[in-house]
């Protein structure tokens, strides 16, 4: 079997979050990162290396020249990705041709435990007697480090590090970041201290700094959400969604936002307040109730013909029908005239549909109603509405147990509401309430050093 080259590990070093794996390639060859398609033995690392080590890294030769080697799932030679303009384009997977010599594999911000999990291809590893084997990086280079790490853990165990300041603990973390068990101990201790502050901002900063510690991040995020729930602010829930859309609490945050804003709309109890809720939160479970209540109010307004209308009822009905139809068309046309996205236009279609239904129920014999129902314009509207509702239902059906779809859904939902409240036609009372809660939240986060009060 033809060999692509021989690769030998010389040393491994850590410095300021960067891992340097010094290697020697004793014969020239072509190299991938690692193949995920049928293990075709063209990469640096074996298919047995866990998928948690799929990171981009640089390969630097003795002259300082760097090669970027990137892992791409799927067929090794072709793949697709978004270009700078956001369009999907076809790419060819880069193959790096390397001459014999000494190189550094440079990993930036890759957890050291993941580096340990790497196995170099047996095609690229050899020993002095010419026998091929997989290079076991951990066995070769981590035994001494483990002894050093245990000595540090024994030293820290002599002191009550929980009494140290957070700044001191972070300083120790920077000194000993090479040692994974030490860093975990320090990160856990730092979190215990920060949890006592009840500060959302401090917990959030912890998550940003120690994002590789998934267990602790989950604990911190849960605490953040519990603190936000005590404030029960729509602005707080929106902030949480913007920062932690992939968390298991994001859907609960969105649902609570819907409950709060529907309660506000119901308290105002006007057509405009219900319309604003429907337009800004079209996927909320309360939309059906908002449509029903707003139709009841609307029905009273459009079927009040006055005391003197008895002798000219048909003419009055025709006037009311035209007035209702014109208003419904204005709402239907708003997303088109303002070039709103599919996500932002759904609520407008729901409101217009409610008005068209009222038109059919109360003015079914009016000329304006009959002409509209027979028009191509109305048929196109129904088609557009059904398509939008199908998209909503499809999204809701797919978000269960799918964190990526959930994240996209909650982010889009918040974006729709923010766009809606920035619109001049939004209900003034609801907009004032929404802006007030955001000002309160900004003030709270500005006074972050005082904790969460």
- Counted beta strands: 11
Helix content: 40-55%
Gross morphology: elongated
How much of the sequence lies in strands comes to: 5-15%
* Helix-strand sequence: EEEEEEEEEHEEHHHHHHHHHHHHHHHH
Mean pLDDT, all residues = 79
Query: What's the number of structural domains?
Result: 3
Give a short account of the largest sheet: 5 strands, antiparallel
Radius of gyration computed on alpha carbons: 31 Å
Summary of the model, kept short:
With 453 residues, the protein is an alpha+beta fold. It has 17 helices and eleven strands. 55% of the residues lie in helices and 12% in strands.
Descriptive report:
The protein has 3 domains: 7-138, no CATH class; 146-227; 250-450, no CATH class. It has 17 helices and 11 strands. It has helices at 112-116, 137-141, 143-157, 166-175, 180-195, 200-209, 214-231, 234-243, 250-268, 271-280, 287-302, 313-337, 342-362, 367-373, 376-398, 403-421, 428-446, and strands spanning 7-15, 18-25, 29-31, 57-61, 66-69, 78-82, 88-92, 96-98, 101-108, 119-120, 135-136.
Topology, element by element:
Blueprint: E1 7-15, E2 18-25, E3 29-31, E4 57-61, E5 66-69, E6 78-82, E7 88-92, E8 96-98, E9 101-108, H1 112-116, E10 119-120, E11 135-136, H2 137-141, H3 143-157, H4 166-175, H5 180-195, H6 200-209, H7 214-231, H8 234-243, H9 250-268, H10 271-280, H11 287-302, H12 313-337, H13 342-362, H14 367-373, H15 376-398, H16 403-421, H17 428-446
Antiparallel strand pairs: 1-2, 2-9, 3-8, 4-5, 4-9, 6-7, 10-11
């Amino acid at each position: 079997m033809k060999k692509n080259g021989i690769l030998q590990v010389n040393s491994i070093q850590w410095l300021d979050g960067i891992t340097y794996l010094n290697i020697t390639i004793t014969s020239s060859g072509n190299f991938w990162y690692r193949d995920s398609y049928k293990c075709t033995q063209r990469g640096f690392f074996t298919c047995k290396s866990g998928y948690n080590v799929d990171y981009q890294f640089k390969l630097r030769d003795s002259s300082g020249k760097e090669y970027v080697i990137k892992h791409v799932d799927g067929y090794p030679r072709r793949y697709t990705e978004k270009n700078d303009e956001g369009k999907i384009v076809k790419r060819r997977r880069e193959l790096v041709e390397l001459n014999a010599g000494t190189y550094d594999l440079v990993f930036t911000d890759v957890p050291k435990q993941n580096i340990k999990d790497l196995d170099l291809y047996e095609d690229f590893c050899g020993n002095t007697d010419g026998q091929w084997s997989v290079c076991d990086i951990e066995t070769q280079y981590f035994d001494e480090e483990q002894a050093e790490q245990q000595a540090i853990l024994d030293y820290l165990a002599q002191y009550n590090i929980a009494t140290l300041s957070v700044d001191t603990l972070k300083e120790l973390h920077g000194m000993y970041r090479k040692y994974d068990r030490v860093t975990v101990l320090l990160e856990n201790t730092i979190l215990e201290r920060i949890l006592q502050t009840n500060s959302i901002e401090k917990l959030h900063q912890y998550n940003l700094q120690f994002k590789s510690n998934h267990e602790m991040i989950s604990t911190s995020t849960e605490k953040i959400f519990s603190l936000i729930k005590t404030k029960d602010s729509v602005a707080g829930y929106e902030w949480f969604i913007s920062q932690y859309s992939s968390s298991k609490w994001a859907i609960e945050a969105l649902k609570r936002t819907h409950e709060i804003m529907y309660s506000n709309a119901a308290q105002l109890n006007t057509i405009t307040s219900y319309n604003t809720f429907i337009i800004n939160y079209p996927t909320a479970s309360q939309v059906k109730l908002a449509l029903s209540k707003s139709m009841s109010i609307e029905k009273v307004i459009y079927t009040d013909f006055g005391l003197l209308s008895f002798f000219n009822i048909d003419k009055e009905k025709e006037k009311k029908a035209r007035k209702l139809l014109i208003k419904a068309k204005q709402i239907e046309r708003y997303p088109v005239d303002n070039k709103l996205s599919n996500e932002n236009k759904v609520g407008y279609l729901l409101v217009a549909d409610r008005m068209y239904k009222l038109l059919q129920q109360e003015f079914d014999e009016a000329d304006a109603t009959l002409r509209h129902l027979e028009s191509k314009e109305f048929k196109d509207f129904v088609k557009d509405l059904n398509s939008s509702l199908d998209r909503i239902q499809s999204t809701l059906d797919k978000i269960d147990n799918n964190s990526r779809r959930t994240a996209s859904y909650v982010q889009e939902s918040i974006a729709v509401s923010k766009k809606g409240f920035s619109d001049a036609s939004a209900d003034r009372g609801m907009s004032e309430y929404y802006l007030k809660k955001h000002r309160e939240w900004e003030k709270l986060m500005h006074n972050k050093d005082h904790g969460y009060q």
